[in-house]
Amino acid sequence: IFSFSVPKRKHLTSSKTMRNSSSSTPIISGFSYKKFVNFALEETQRHTHLIPSPLQEKFNLMKSIDQKTELEMLSFQSSKIRLLRGLTIDGSDSMQVMDFAVFPEPEFDLPIFCANCVTVGSVNIVVLDLNPLHDVIIERNYREKYYKSLMPLGLKYAELLPWGGKITSESLKFFSPIVIWTKFSSSQHNHDLLFSAFMDYYKAWLEIMDQAKEETDTSRVICNLRAQHRYLTWRAEKDPGHRLLKRLIGECNAQDLVRDFLFNGVTTLGAKTFAEYFPEYQQEDGSISEKRSMVGKSFETRPWDTGGEFIGENIM
Ligand code: BLA
């Protein structure tokens, strides 16, 4: 009854390059993140049996209020994967967005696969990472368990896709030593590079998924569950995409998409509130500060050494 095939959707993989008359910057037309999501789905099926998520019924295709932008949503699950979901946004004014993530079942302490790519005009903003479930700055064991062997991969792409500049310490705490945090201008070369980084990182995640053993110690399962809930709570409240989503589909739909689809689990995996996890955001009247960061931006360069040891300052 669960048999299905991932729909082979048409996507634009062609790479027509046009010349912008006012400058010599090549503009990539026909670029789409859909091939990233398609790759991930096909690759996942080589490792595990995916079944569609119940969320698929409600979240599939949407049009923006002005009808000019299309939002496509896909979601699946498997024995070790609580939720694999992807959102791609195909905008009229050369805007392309992908938010692709894989959340493990709480019996596994696997990192959360996270690929966030935003292309607006010729500007690209990227976060690609195996977001650690547990602290990798303090918890050496967790860091070594998953990231020690991935450092060569991280170092390779750290050179090819350089550090994207100052970042908030709040975000940085959710990143791993192999995070690709980068900004670049559109070109065929850069988009190809990003696709190859995505494929390599995703294959690395699938490999550690294959090896992951189910945790039977209840206290550890609870610990994984709490860590995932804290992560979801952070992103459901502070993800930089919210403003754009509100503009595209309205406040109500954006809230639904964020809380029920993108960060599904935020209302079901735990009861703690944002203010309980992140009390520094709580204001005197009890409300949550709208600021993205209380600390401000820092870390102009990659704050990890080649061994994955944190070398930044003032992270707390
Ligand atoms: C920008 N997205 C960013 C930035 C980061 C992230 C770090 C740079 C701005 C900053 O320094 O905060 C992503 N931040 C993350 C991730 C984590 C985090 C992945 O803390 C994980 C813990 N982004 C999306 C979606 C949209 C989107 C779905 O994922 C739009 C619908 C938009 N992100 C978006 C835009 C910017 C951005 C428009 C640039 C403008 C801005 O910073 O507000």
- Largest β-sheet summary: 8 strands, antiparallel
Overall morphology? globular
Helix content: 25-40%
Helical segment count: 9
DSSP strand (E) fraction?
A: 15-25%
Q: State the separation between the terminal residues, measured CA to CA.
A: 50 Å
What is the succession of H and E elements? EEHEEEEEEEHHEHEHHHHHE
Helical/strand content category: alpha+beta
Rg on CA atoms, Å: 19 Å
pLDDT averaged over residues:
91
Identify low-pLDDT runs: 1-26
Provide the list of bound ligands, each named once: biliverdine IX alpha
Count the beta strands: 12
Spell out the key features of this protein.
binds biliverdine IX alpha, disordered N terminus, two-stranded antiparallel sheet, about 325 residues, alpha+beta, 9 helices, 8-stranded antiparallel beta sheet, about 20% strand
Task: Outline the structure in words.
With 316 residues, the protein is α+β, with helices and mostly antiparallel strands. Helix content is 32%, strand content 21%. It has helices at 34-45, 140-146, 151-160, 169-172, 188-211, 218-238, 242-249, 251-262, 274-277, and strands spanning 17-19, 26-28, 51-52, 61-63, 70-77, 81-90, 95-104, 112-120, 123-131, 167-168, 180-185, 297-298. Strands 3, 4, 5, 6, 7, 8, 9 and 11 form an eight-stranded antiparallel beta sheet that branches. It has a two-stranded antiparallel ribbon with strand order 1-2. A two-stranded antiparallel sheet has the order 10-12. The protein is globular. It starts with 16 loop residues before the first strand and ends in an 18-residue tail after the last strand. The model is unreliable at 1-26 (pLDDT under 50). The site of biliverdine IX alpha has 20 residues, from strand 6, strand 7, strand 8, strand 9 and strand 10.
